Amino acid sequence: MRPLLVSLALLMTAGCSVAAAGPDGGADAMLQRVRTLTDPVLAGRGAGSPGGRAAGDSIAAWLSAVGLELLFEGGWHQEFPLQGEGWSGQSLVGRSGRNVGGVLRGAGRLAGRYVLLCAHYDHLGRSDGDSLVAPPAAADYFPGANDNASGVSVLLEAAATIASTSPAGGDRRSVLVVSFDGEEVGLQGSAFMVDHMPVPLDSLDAVINLDSVGQMPQGKLYVSGIGTTPVFAELARRAGSPDLELALAPGSWSGSDHMTFAAHEVPVIFLFGGPYKEYNRPDDCWESLDPEALAAVARYATDLAGLVRGVPGDMPWVQVADPESTGEGGDEPVHRNTWLGTMPDFTAGITGYMIGSVFEGSPAAAAGLSAGDVLIRFGGQEVTDLATFTRALRSFAPADPVEITLLRGGRPLNFTVVLGDRAQRR
What we know:
The protein is of the alpha+beta class.
């Protein structure tokens, strides 16, 4: 069956209703969109899979319902060739992914400048790879409710609000609303788009990326990248409700599509709900999400995008110390797949790398590391923050045993951890 017919068949089987989760908005509509994207018939939205294509069709229909204009030449989709392997080891060569996007036109002298509001929609797909058994059992696929159906749903909510409330006249930037495919297999969708931009890259002033925003387990929204252009710090504090606690960070720490644009010196802000226990597990389902978190992040993203649209002057790039850096000389070996299995806590005023959460089955869990531990030495290297931790981690290869020193309750403790391979975890 051709891909389009597969997509339509999947959508009909799933009983998806675009109207039920359309531009009317609110937490209920956002949760309904998440339920649609995590339905078993979409089988985890793996990049290049029939379920992934069906999800892309749903997102295109939602963008149309919001009232956005077509962004890409020929329609809502930007198709690109996939490379490498999927999560369960299947080859992606010969398959294609699809970015989905629309545009909301600005006004006045800023109409030719752009803000990109984005969230990836792909997830890990099926644990049984290319199996054609449909739909999969609950334990055989990764729903990806928080990662990143939540971000897509908030993206659509923000786009609908912006489209319906933009005043006439004035000067404001146009908004590109894009949901990327291929994020989980190496940021492939955003990498393709940055090389095949539908607007000139030098007209893109800012990127706001949403990823895993359906929960806030630590009670705060993590907002990073505010140092990548001077005005961001003020705007990030002004946006949203005063009741929403923010964890602000100047750098654009890695892991999602904003990093593609930061590498091209476009200012970026990354919105993240914080570490959560269902990460990359089959129980990352819609029931685990917090509707109040979805609503709070939607308000924040909408406000922030509106403020960025109206910045009257230039938004110059500022290079912030990057956790991806390899060190001063650039000659050290860099092992980007080396995995410890922790998420950071961005608590201010901490010297070291504070662990926010430890993934089940990870090298960190096997070694006995816990949330709240503060790493201060890693393999003989001093750790003072996220950047120094990342450099130290990537100086070792998977399977290397490493001695670490951490503070637990103020007391120094020594551990040995055998590092893992990010590409091999399931």
